[in-house]
Amino acid sequence: MPEPLTSSAPETGQSLAQEYRRTRDLTESLVEPLSDADATIQSMEDASPAKWHLAHTTWFWETFLLRDFARDYTLFDDDWPFLFNSYYEAEGERIARFSRGLLSRPTLDEIREWRAHVDDAMEPILDDPAHAELVTLGIAHEQQHIELLLTDIKHALFQNPLGPAMWSGAPARAESRELGWHEHPGGVALIGHDGEGFAFDNEGPRHRVLLEPFALADRLVTNAEWQEFIDDGGYRNARLWLSDGWAWVKEQGAEAPLYWRSAESGADHFTHQGWQTRDPNAPVTHISYFEADAYASWAGKRLPTEFEWEAIARGQHGEGNAPAHDPAGGNQLDGAEPPQPAGSDGLFGDCWQFTRSGYLPYPRFQPAAGAVGEYNGKFMSGQFVLKGASCATVRGHSRASYRNFFYPHQQWQFTGLRLAKDL
Amino acid sequence: MPEPLTSSAPETGQSLAQEYRRTRDLTESLVEPLSDADATIQSMEDASPAKWHLAHTTWFWETFLLRDFARDYTLFDDDWPFLFNSYYEAEGERIARFSRGLLSRPTLDEIREWRAHVDDAMEPILDDPAHAELVTLGIAHEQQHIELLLTDIKHALFQNPLGPAMWSGAPARAESRELGWHEHPGGVALIGHDGEGFAFDNEGPRHRVLLEPFALADRLVTNAEWQEFIDDGGYRNARLWLSDGWAWVKEQGAEAPLYWRSAESGADHFTHQGWQTRDPNAPVTHISYFEADAYASWAGKRLPTEFEWEAIARGQHGEGNAPAHDPAGGNQLDGAEPPQPAGSDGLFGDCWQFTRSGYLPYPRFQPAAGAVGEYNGKFMSGQFVLKGASCATVRGHSRASYRNFFYPHQQWQFTGLRLAKDL
Amino acid sequence: MPEPLTSSAPETGQSLAQEYRRTRDLTESLVEPLSDADATIQSMEDASPAKWHLAHTTWFWETFLLRDFARDYTLFDDDWPFLFNSYYEAEGERIARFSRGLLSRPTLDEIREWRAHVDDAMEPILDDPAHAELVTLGIAHEQQHIELLLTDIKHALFQNPLGPAMWSGAPARAESRELGWHEHPGGVALIGHDGEGFAFDNEGPRHRVLLEPFALADRLVTNAEWQEFIDDGGYRNARLWLSDGWAWVKEQGAEAPLYWRSAESGADHFTHQGWQTRDPNAPVTHISYFEADAYASWAGKRLPTEFEWEAIARGQHGEGNAPAHDPAGGNQLDGAEPPQPAGSDGLFGDCWQFTRSGYLPYPRFQPAAGAVGEYNGKFMSGQFVLKGASCATVRGHSRASYRNFFYPHQQWQFTGLRLAKDL
Amino acid sequence: MPEPLTSSAPETGQSLAQEYRRTRDLTESLVEPLSDADATIQSMEDASPAKWHLAHTTWFWETFLLRDFARDYTLFDDDWPFLFNSYYEAEGERIARFSRGLLSRPTLDEIREWRAHVDDAMEPILDDPAHAELVTLGIAHEQQHIELLLTDIKHALFQNPLGPAMWSGAPARAESRELGWHEHPGGVALIGHDGEGFAFDNEGPRHRVLLEPFALADRLVTNAEWQEFIDDGGYRNARLWLSDGWAWVKEQGAEAPLYWRSAESGADHFTHQGWQTRDPNAPVTHISYFEADAYASWAGKRLPTEFEWEAIARGQHGEGNAPAHDPAGGNQLDGAEPPQPAGSDGLFGDCWQFTRSGYLPYPRFQPAAGAVGEYNGKFMSGQFVLKGASCATVRGHSRASYRNFFYPHQQWQFTGLRLAKDL
């Protein structure tokens, strides 16, 4: 999901001002372990420097709120909006995406000063109902960038042969658990956001979809199961793969999920805590759509559609937009801690779950007007929908109607796999 | 649609043997105007040499029928199967796709001899009911390659600054016609092939889809209308484009459909009859999905879904799989003639019509077993569905459930645009 | 040597008119075995289609002689000069080099008609002394393209898995021969053309060069010797290679000369006569400068400079510009026959010989004026000088002062290696 | 000059230990203005991060001296040698060159600690005559990296739209000065290092070269003169350019030296002091060989050979290897100051001067043995020799026999142009 712009409904019972502060503080606390240099580097075009995320989210507040609505607001720096706009064509030129990693200036500390400057200016208008919609959107936008910041810096640190850890310690281990199935009889399901509370424009309008009887797995595929797939020649059998997927395998020389390494001293993988032994019972993560689809073929199952997934989520959790929508407790981000999928019970957490649904407009979908509308609709080609949430998603950010989306070759998000089958 | 393998129901009232001969003869008559060199060149990776199409369709009969079922059949040449396999991983190694244009040997005449050899060997088994299914598939497969042959050679000749014509003469002119709308009240529609007669595996299973009320244009967008889009800055306004589409525009320097040229002496475009003046009333063609989507945005309309299109087609023509399914008469291929969109009335003809539906599996879809099953399912990522037929589609080849598919940047097929809107 | 333009001194005792006809006939007789399609394909950017060579050499006569000097001459076709100009910026736009292989029209027969048309028009002016200089240049130019035609078509046919042969039969075998040395005491040598007879501008002016004592091998390195280099890990030992050469080895996966194959039934290589067993006593050929340099390092020797080579050649053959300059008889092209290095005795023949001299201007060098001057001087960066002649060089075309030049990675010419050492 | 390894003769009258300390201190003082992030980024494959230069020069001392000769020396960090080796294949694997800019760890401060650790360990052996040769080489090596550090960081800061300055202030202005000529009568010149004092292996052996009469300009081409070349269409006239140069112009869209900008408020260019107005009388710099050669063609002059340049230098300054070899005072690096070409009098200073000599081995050249020998000889293909020194060359580092070398397209060094002509 390339930097979508949005507004998470703060389903936390807090005031908007509280939610603003919680989110802004979380962003900053997550970069505490990073040096100026760590926050500057960019490992690939899909990723952005941590510093850039800090600045871009700040640019959002300045551009869409302060510049228009804060009395006598002065830009912190006249040149920075150009540097930290992302893809809003309406808001002027941007620098080439892959040059972001060359911006050693402004420094991390200067960006922090900018953040403080903007936070101060935001205070008077945070509780003004006239701006509630934009503030909500800005919070959701910043929460999305929190997840990207975490996955981007992981990818950047991974490039370093020293394997630097962003946090110390080691992840907790998961329990082994039998796979069960959530069954669904089919019929007409209501899909999409109902208009209550915040949602992105791409989650609506709510509409009816006809489903055939199906079942959805009650947990994610694990590292141990993925190892069986590898051991059975999964990455060498063209028959299991989509045509584009097989081309990708050959071009990449892919033979395991991103971040896996067959160390001499046991299987390990790269995490925010450096190189760690893989937990066989933890959900497999950092897989592409191509890999997820090939695994499902190998397992004699398939990926769910986004509608099937949402129907189960609503069955389990009602409307699914309530704060406590996943009491079973998937791993989500609660603070400045290393994100790592650990259990695999909850629908909302641990890993984003691939669906076989293309990321396309719902019936009667209309993009929002103005510059803030330039973010979801225009990505509707070539990508797939993912549902749920991951261990790097700020708790409270997701809901049953949430539609995340990525290209089928991308692996650097906390993506995972929940199987489905026909009944 | 990269060389899909299929079997068109011969909806022509002819026996399978007659249909076999009609199709094989058509292939050969289409290359009559070509020299050995014309038939050898390859202009891009998406296209294949004409000679290759002649050979590959022949390889199909030899590999899937003669080798297995013809008593004492001898391969015409032991090395050629390797050269003319396309993408059936199960059938052995292939040469790199873009090296096809370097095969000056075997010659066009040698390929013709191979065709005659195979046709002779096919005669005794053409009417054997035991092979009817494979023969039907082989005919459909060859008909698909006829369309590709025509679009590929057009692209190859276009590269030549001399602008060589494959046929002489000039296309007929179309009448101007007001745009009207086919309205649909919404509700449950039956989608997909019903199992009667031939269809590709990707057209089924038949299933129910819920539609919202909508309307589908009763003709295609014309060259004159497209010129208005250009004149209004359509190719320079990022807001109209999908994000990937805008990147494509900038990378390609796109400012008009493929084959358009602003000649000093009037607007013209490249055709199988060389450079010709564009007919303002003829449907615009050779546009990408990106262009179609941008135009629809500019026009305040949208693309239809594949389900909407099919529902209208069935409403107009009943099941739509009957031979006379489009009495209004869209332009299709009836013989060795230059294909050119001329009118724009029929749903089935002139141009393939983009839908906003991703090319994805229908509920309970299963690929066919064996090597012949390696063709439709494995392309289900990143592409869009097109409906109808084009002026280069062999008449009788298409039907309401037919799903053609291409990547959103591809332009070299006879692709066009039929608008839709919500009601 | 990318299509240099020049004029070989016809050292054959023939009149210019006779030499013109001999050369033109030779060009045409060499393409006798080729079909229109063979003559159309282009295997890489460095190579051109055979048809293109036939046309380009004809364009030369039309552009530089007939258009200016033939009374009432009419262009054979107005569009063809654009198609068949090569790199003379002064003579107008050209099509992109790698699109040459898409020109199925004009046909091979049409090009032959053009050649006849031009030959007829040339007859009256062939013996006119006023044009002798340009005619001589045109003959040399066409002789250079004969060599390129032969090496380009070899590369094109090599791409075909069928391994088509252009001529039948098999090459003669060479005798094994001990390596001896031509010694030279050093001192001042006269280098470059003396102004008698034809030479390219880059061969002069004649000037003095100081040499240190050295020796030049009296034969070329053989296939058997190269095999030892391979067996000793030559392609896997970075220490033997230039830095750019080692990068080239890794990028190409190079492990043998171009055209070598380790067939199960014995070592073979691709030739104009198809796949043939390699002759261990024949000179190794189709090696890059990088390979030649690495071999010399491995052998504890070095490449000669162009000055050393020329000094030996003059010592052996006097001025070396006489027709019989190499009585020992290196293999050169005498007619429409398969070129293949066989012996290795003569300095002038079998393979072009790499020198360690960069292709740079001699003191007081000035490019010729006008469009015909746009060919040698402008290539003076990044290339190395080769001396002698190859089995594909028209006999009479070379001389001691001749400077051939290629980039250090190129392999598709008949390049070989003659070692040198310090004394 | 891709990170050549060498040893500058400390022509400063200082002891080796003093010269070691002066050089090490200079390196560190030059990065004083840089943040950790500034020192981490890498703008292109040809450049390295400042931090990398600090580390790599330290790796040199550790690898070639301390590890072998310092009693009980302990590596500062076991993993760092892998990170900071450059291209010594013999010393083990290296990380891909363009990944250097992703090494946010170790930090700049950690590298400084490493430097201090190594400097402490070096102290006892600095004055040991047994190591004098390697210490001299290490000093020269570090001085070369000082120049690269300065040119690499300039290129990196240039990528930033903010145009950050590394130093404040503005450069001094130069005087306008008529062009004069150093004439030379030709004859035998002694070229190459005489063996007294330190020199790189590629500077020898000394040998005789025959020169024709020529003249060398007594100053460099200026910005004002270069502007005339531009105004006269120099970048749009193919006839002035080498073939590879013209391809480079078109591919790059080149229309001025690197770092030039046509600001609305007057011509300016990027410097270590940020964007500054160009001084018309200062030497033009940051030009490629292609540009230098095209300018010389336009001016009706030519580039000198390396031998001509050296002959003049020896005529002006005797052996030219004495400390005061250029009393006229070209701009060289004397401390932690912004390098900027200002005057244009001295042969040794302001800008490296292109010669038309390929970077090739001198007669009887032999690379040094062992890993330290892997640096000069292996670059001898495709590059050109530059003579003199630049404003970023540590004073005392250069000499008349010094051979710098770059590829003809490279611009990011302080390269300039001194014309020559025949007499």
From TrEMBL, chains A, B, C, D:
- InterPro entries listed in its UniProt record: CTDL_fold, DinB-like, DinB/YfiT-like, EgtB, Sulfatase_Mod_Factor_Kinase, SUMF_dom, SUMF_sf
Q: Which Pfam families match?
A: DinB_2, FGE-sulfatase
Keywords carried by this UniProt record: Iron, Oxidoreductase
User: What's the protein here called?
Assistant: Ergothioneine biosynthesis protein EgtB
Q: What are the boundaries of the region Disordered?
A: 317-342
UniProt pathway annotation = Amino-acid biosynthesis; ergothioneine biosynthesis
Domain annotation DinB-like: ranges: 20-146
What NCBIfam families is this protein classified in?
A: egtB_TIGR03440
- List the source organism: Altererythrobacter xiamenensis
One example of a Gene Ontology biological process annotation: ergothioneine biosynthetic process
Q: Which residues form the Sulfatase-modifying factor enzyme-like domain?
A: 185-421
Keyword tRNA-binding included in the entry's annotation: no
PANTHER family hit by this protein: HERCYNINE OXYGENASE, SULFATASE MODIFYING FACTOR 1, 2
